[in-house]
């Protein structure tokens, strides 16, 4: 089981006198749970998502983001691991390294790339993740070896051509078919070119499929419900439930509206106001928000302060 732990996170827009947006966010998401993060427009939800992923538009000015892994999460790694391989400080890592460790942030609108099918795109994403993982967990070892070497230079053997566990076409097709079945998706979808002519709803479904393929520890889904008609909302919701139930993914489901929570039953609900998580509860909190809006949360938070 993996745990994403955010402690007292502060962030601002990465420019001189950039606006302070996150003001001490505390939030913990464990794999296998769905957390709904709600809040009015402008409260900092999307910024939190992007800071978790390592978006360069934001500068972190305080706090930490930790990812704790267990044996299960590193079962694919063929190297001797030490304690550090189970506890990562994400703020010290590049976006692609965070992704390789199991953080998924929907590539919300990957560009249309001429001549690249969905299939090729996903296969490439999967291979890139596998390569990066190998490097991350082996780098650690190489560094440790270098430290032990009292001559002060790295005597580890030169890297040969990556003995990459490239996923073959047949194996990939097999995984893809399984995931598409899990999500109830039409195989024809995959032959289409990346995002060319995809409807808004299809793009959202793609995002869930990407998350299913990459099997992240924690998937951050930002407003995946926006602009969906009811049928597509149900499809997407079914997919999100499957991420949790069938592959134990933790989901941080960012949403402005309660509507999707009729189909995706959250294990935890959090409210963000002015760059802080000011209230947490169970599914009943989302219902209360639907009935009463956010004003009472603001009053409660104000009284507590
Ligand atoms: P939410 O997703 O909850 O609607 P955001 O995280 O998108 O909120 O934005 C929070 C606040 O930060 C808003 O006032 C927004 O205008 C501001 N903001 C976010 N990103 C930037 C940016 N890159 N440059 C300037 N202001 C930004
Ligand atoms: Mg705080
Ligand atoms: Mg937003």
Structural summary, described in words:
This protein has 305 residues and is α/β, with parallel strands linked by helices. It has one domain (3-148, 167-304): Rossmann fold (3-Layer(aba) Sandwich). 37% of the residues lie in helices and 22% in strands. It has 8 helices and 10 strands. The protein has helices at 45-53, 95-101, 118-148, 169-182, 200-214, 230-247, 283-292, 295-304, and strands at residues 3-13, 20-30, 34-38, 58-68, 87-89, 103-105, 218-222, 250-255, 268-273, 276-281. The strands form 2 sheets. A 6-stranded mixed sheet has the order 6-7-8-3-9-10, with helices on both faces. A 4-stranded antiparallel sheet has the order 2-1-4-5. Helix 2 crosses helix 3 (118-148) and helix 5 (200-214) packs parallel to helix 6. The two termini are 35 Å apart. Residues 154-163 have low confidence and may be disordered. The protein binds adenosine-5'-diphosphate (ADP) and magnesium ion (2 copies). One magnesium ion binds next to helix 1. One magnesium ion is lined by residues 45-46, 223.
Show the helix and strand layout.
Blueprint (H helix, E strand, L loop, with lengths): L2 E11 L6 E11 L3 E5 L6 H9 L4 E11 L18 E3 L5 H7 L1 E3 L12 H31 L20 H14 L17 H15 L3 E5 L7 H18 L2 E6 L12 E6 L2 E6 L1 H10 L2 H10 L1
Parallel strand pairs: 3-8, 3-9, 6-7, 7-8
Antiparallel strand pairs: 1-2, 1-4, 4-5, 9-10
This protein binds adenosine-5'-diphosphate and magnesium ion (2 copies).
The site of adenosine-5'-diphosphate has 12 residues, from helix 1.
Keywords: ATP-binding, Nucleotide-binding
Pfam families: ABC_tran (PF00005)
InterPro entries: AAA+_ATPase, ABC_transporter-like_ATP-bd, FeS-cluster_ATPase_SufC, P-loop_NTPase
């Amino acid at each position: 089981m993996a745990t994403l732990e955010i402690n007292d996170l502060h962030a601002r827009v990465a420019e001189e006198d950039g606006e302070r947006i996150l003001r001490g966010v505390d939030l913990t998401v464990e794999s296998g749970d769905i957390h709904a993060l709600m809040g009015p427009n402008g409260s900092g939800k999307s910024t939190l998502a992007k800071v978790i992923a390592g978006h360069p538009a934001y500068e972190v000015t305080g706090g930490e983001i930790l990812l704790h892994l267990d044996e299960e999460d590193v079962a694919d790694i063929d190297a001797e691991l030490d304690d550090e391989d189970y506890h990562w400080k994400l703020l010290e890592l590049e976006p692609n390294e965070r992704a390789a460790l199991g953080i998924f942030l929907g590539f919300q609108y990957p560009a249309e790339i001429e001549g690249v099918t969905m299939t090729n795109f996903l296969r490439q994403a999967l291979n890139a993740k596998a390569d990066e993982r190998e490097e991350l967990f082996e780098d650690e070892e190489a560094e440790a070896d270098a430290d032990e070497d009292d001559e002060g230079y790295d005597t580890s053997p030169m890297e040969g051509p990556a003995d990459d566990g490239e996923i073959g076409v047949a194996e990939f097709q097999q995984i893809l078919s399984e995931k598409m079945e899990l999500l109830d998706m039409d195989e024809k979808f995959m032959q289409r070119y990346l995002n060319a002519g995809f409807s808004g709803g299809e793009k959202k479904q793609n995002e869930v499929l990407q998350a299913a393929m990459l099997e992240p520890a924690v998937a951050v889904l930002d407003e995946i419900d926006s602009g969906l008609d009811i049928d597509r909302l149900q499809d997407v919701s079914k997919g999100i439930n499957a991420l949790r139930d069938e592959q134990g993914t933790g989901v941080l489901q960012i949403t402005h509206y309660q509507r999707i929570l009729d189909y995706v039953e959250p294990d935890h609900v959090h409210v963000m106001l002015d760059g802080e998580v000011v209230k947490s509860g169970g599914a009943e909190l989302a219902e209360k928000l639907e009935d009463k809006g956010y004003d009472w949360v603001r009053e409660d938070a104000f009284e507590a302060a």
